[in-house]
Amino acid sequence: MSTRIRLQRHGKKGRPFFHIVVADQRAKRDGRFIEKLGTYDPNTNPATIDLDFDRSLDWIQKGAKPTDTARAILSYRGVLMMDHLLRGVTKGALTEDQAKKKFEKWLEEKETTIQNKRDGLAKSADEQRKARLAAEQEANAAREAALAAAAAPEVEETEEAEEAGETAAEAVEGAVEAAAEAVEEVVEEVVEKVEEAVEEATEEAPAEEAKEEAPAEESSEEEKKDA
User: Which of 26, 20, 36, 21 is nearest to 2 (CA)?
Assistant: First the structure.
């Protein structure tokens, strides 16, 4: 019976979650399987892999053929590396101790690489968070500046209106004062003319009375001569 190590899809739409299984090559992708070797979650970064190392290695040694994705997962977790080293031991190219040391060294380097990737992702996420925060602060500052700019003309217009009102009031007050002064000047001129007319009338009155009395005296003298 030809067997394959492949992924069996589970999870929700848009968030797939896979089981790593050994199944008959003739079985459907999500059909019956022989053994479950682990799980694979691609929704995390880096992806989360939970794998039974020994059982996976055993199936590889038995001749199970992994799919491309399953091969990448097995290689990532060192299953294929261990299979390669054990083949070398079988052929006499390596001893078991040498194979073990080589695998431990490879595993240490792999863990260092994975940790560096995690640290890099964490740093990148922190930088992105700071960049988003700075962008939000800039956007808030720009929004406040826009609101201030929109409110400024209203204040200026109000101040200009107040200044125009004050100017108009001053102009009205000035016009009223000028009119009052003009009226006072006219009244003074009229009073002066009236007083002058009264004085002239007073001076002419005795002269006319004297003229009226003079003929009376002359007639009395004529009467005496006739007598």
Answer: 26
- CATH 3.30.1320.10 is held by the domain 3-93: yes
Pairing of β 35-41 and β 15-24: antiparallel
Map residue 26 onto helix, strand or coil.
coil
pLDDT in tens, 105-148: 998 888 888 888 888 888 888 888 888 888 888 888 888 888 88
Task: Sketch the domain layout of the chain as residue ranges.
Answer: 3-93
Report strand pairing: 3-12 vs 65-66.
parallel
β-partners of residue 16 are 11
Report the 3 state secondary structure along 43-96.
Answer: CCCCCEEEECHHHHHHHHHCCCEECHHHHHHHHHCCHHHHHHHHHHHHHCCCCH
What span, in angstroms and rounded, lies between the C-alpha atoms of 86 and 95?
9
SS3 191: helix
Neighbouring C-beta atoms of residue 82, cutoff 10 Å: 23
Radius of gyration (Cα) for the chain, nearest Å?
Answer: 61
